Amino acid sequence: MIIDEVQELFSQVQDSAERILDTMHKGLSMENAHIIADSVHSLNASLAVLASFENEKIFPLLQKSPERSAKLYGEKYAREISRLASRISAYAASYCDADSVFASQHNFPPVTDFLLESLLNNMDRQKDEIFPILRKTEIQSI
User: Fold this and answer.
1) Contact, 63 vs 107, CB < 8 A?
2) For residue 59, what is the domain's CATH number?
3) pTM to 2 decimals?
């Protein structure tokens, strides 16, 4: 089912974002820099898949929903996630390996905390508002 695939993608994105946030707050070390670089790469890849998935599968499913709010929620949250994903992607290019993460770690907290927290909050709202509609619409369309 589409909803199961979406939940798995959300879990991957959230796990990577939370791992970055947790590791950033542990302090400066090369080991932490490796974890952050790997997590940034995973987050960026998962966000790209999620954005594509939303356009190819989620929107078409929401368009079938009899609930008017489904289309509005879907468009609103997809725009927010796309915006955040493109900003995170820009930062990901700067933090693609442990050496660049280690050298730039003092720049993380103000920008990265805000972006990742915004992404996680957006995804939590999507889970609360979109997932029930997706599940119901998917079941009805079977």
Assistant:
1) no
2) 1.20.120
3) 0.80
